[in-house]
Automatic annotation (TrEMBL):
<dbReference type="GO" id="GO:0106430">
    <property type="term" value="F:dihydroorotate dehydrogenase (quinone) activity"/>
</dbReference>
<feature type="binding site">
    <location>
        <begin position="66"/>
        <end position="70"/>
    </location>
    <ligand>
        <name>FMN</name>
    </ligand>
</feature>
<dbReference type="InterPro" id="IPR005719">
    <property type="entry name" value="Dihydroorotate_DH_2"/>
</dbReference>
<feature type="binding site">
    <location>
        <position position="178"/>
    </location>
    <ligand>
        <name>FMN</name>
    </ligand>
</feature>
<feature type="binding site">
    <location>
        <begin position="248"/>
        <end position="249"/>
    </location>
    <ligand>
        <name>substrate</name>
    </ligand>
</feature>
<dbReference type="InterPro" id="IPR012135">
    <property type="entry name" value="Dihydroorotate_DH_1_2"/>
</dbReference>
<dbReference type="Pfam" id="PF01180">
    <property type="entry name" value="DHO_dh"/>
</dbReference>
<feature type="binding site">
    <location>
        <position position="183"/>
    </location>
    <ligand>
        <name>substrate</name>
    </ligand>
</feature>
<feature type="binding site">
    <location>
        <begin position="321"/>
        <end position="322"/>
    </location>
    <ligand>
        <name>FMN</name>
    </ligand>
</feature>
<feature type="binding site">
    <location>
        <position position="271"/>
    </location>
    <ligand>
        <name>FMN</name>
    </ligand>
</feature>
<keyword id="KW-0472">Membrane</keyword>
<feature type="binding site">
    <location>
        <begin position="115"/>
        <end position="119"/>
    </location>
    <ligand>
        <name>substrate</name>
    </ligand>
</feature>
<feature type="binding site">
    <location>
        <position position="90"/>
    </location>
    <ligand>
        <name>FMN</name>
    </ligand>
</feature>
<dbReference type="InterPro" id="IPR050074">
    <property type="entry name" value="DHO_dehydrogenase"/>
</dbReference>
<feature type="active site" description="Nucleophile">
    <location>
        <position position="181"/>
    </location>
</feature>
<feature type="binding site">
    <location>
        <position position="70"/>
    </location>
    <ligand>
        <name>substrate</name>
    </ligand>
</feature>
<keyword id="KW-0288">FMN</keyword>
Length: 343
């Protein structure tokens, strides 16, 4: 079915297509019997899929990566596609429009996207309000991906993360600290050892004041060197955060086959070209840390085999985004079936 409508969606600007699809899904789910139909079509339940990671129970290990639902607008709609967890954001303290359009580009020959969205979002207050009134979770885990505003200098970045952490605390099951997007100037500088430890330690101090602290994950770039990954392992252990999400988009362009005009667009690459490197990072972190913390694998998951490769490399959970766009909503069910069989 998706193969029939995919050319129509791909004829639209990527952002237009995004809101056309999510808006259409929202409308469809208002029809009597539609939720039951969606569950039968896209959900797959099996006890082998259930697991508890960083103290949170997941009904299945396949999640929607951050960036798709920045403002917590489409949780119910995306949950109908069979996801075990959904990560909203990246949200920032204040609303911001993001970078100028066009800012997302398809690379069909590569099965990839380039995006330079720039943390466009309606602000953490809006996301928190939507999450407050989202009560039909039915076992769905919701994560909150948090970042800093573009105009906030790096020396004050910790304050932005604290604001988002405090406002989302009651409404999400885990947090993700995003310091790895290539589309906010200077943001990746926060991956350096000292500023990163400062942010994570500050959040942990606030976290531990709560009776039931929330897991805090760190999302990292695929472009880090081995020595930088060694630092990441040390930082995660020292700050006692829950784990790592590997990886964000890449700034590398090597091996891309699409038109040069597209390849040279600024932004981060996601999709198939990222698959090998993100899995390498997962394996490196898992081995170096002796699996002392969980890893969520993301980057280039376009098939059940891709997801399984990340799990075999050391990931406990996986996330999809670009693969969903290229392969269609049946991807989640395909991955869950393969994992349940433990092949």
């Amino acid at each position: 079915m998706y193969k029939l409508v995919k050319p129509l969606f791909f004829s639209l600007d990527p952002e237009t297509a995004h809101y056309t699809v999510t808006g259409g899904l929202r409308t469809f789910l208002k029809i009597w019997g539609s939720k039951k139909l969606m569950k039968a079509s896209f959900s797959y339940e099996n006890p082998n899929l259930e697991q508890t990671v960083f103290g949170v129970k997941f009904k299945n290990p396949v999640g929607l990566a951050a960036g798709f639902d920045k403002n917590a607008e489409f949780i119910q709609e995306m949950a109908s596609l069979g996801f075990g967890f959904i990560e909203i954001g990246t949200v920032t303290p204040r609303p911001q429009p993001g970078n100028d359009k066009p800012r997302m580009f398809r690379l069909p020959k590569d099965g990839a996207l380039i995006n330079r969205m720039g943390f466009n979002n309606q602000g953490v207050d809006v996301a928190a309000l939507r999450l407050k009134y989202f009560t039909e979770r039915d076992g769905l885990v919701v994560g909150g991906n948090i970042g800093k505003n573009k105009t906030t200098p790096n020396e004050d970045a910790v304050n932005d993360y604290v604001i988002c952490f405090d406002k989302l605390f009651d409404y999400v099951d885990y947090f993700v600290v995003n310091v790895s997007s290539p589309n906010t100037p200077g943001l990746r500088d926060l991956q350096e050892k000292e500023p990163l430890k400062h942010i994570l330690n500050t959040l942990q101090q606030r976290n531990e004041k709560h009776e039931k602290p929330k897991p805090i994950m760190l999302k990292i770039a695929p472009d880090l060197t081995d020595s930088q990954l060694d630092d990441i392992v040390e930082i995660v252990v020292d700050t006692r955060i829950a784990g790592v999400i590997a990886t964000n988009t890449t700034i590398e362009r090597e091996g891309l086959q699409s038109n040069a005009s597209l390849i040279n667009e600024a932004g981060g690459v996601s999709g198939k070209p990222l698959a090998v490197r993100s899995t390498e990072v997962i394996r490196y972190l898992a081995e170096k840390s002796d699996r002392r913390f969980p890893i969520i694998g993301v980057g280039g998951v376009h098939s059940a085999a891709d997801a399984l490769a990340k799990i075999q490399a050391g990931a406990s959970l996986v996330q999809v985004y670009t693969g969903l766009i290229y392969e269609g909503p049946q991807l989640v069910k395909q991955i869950c079936k393969r994992i349940a069989k433990k092949e």
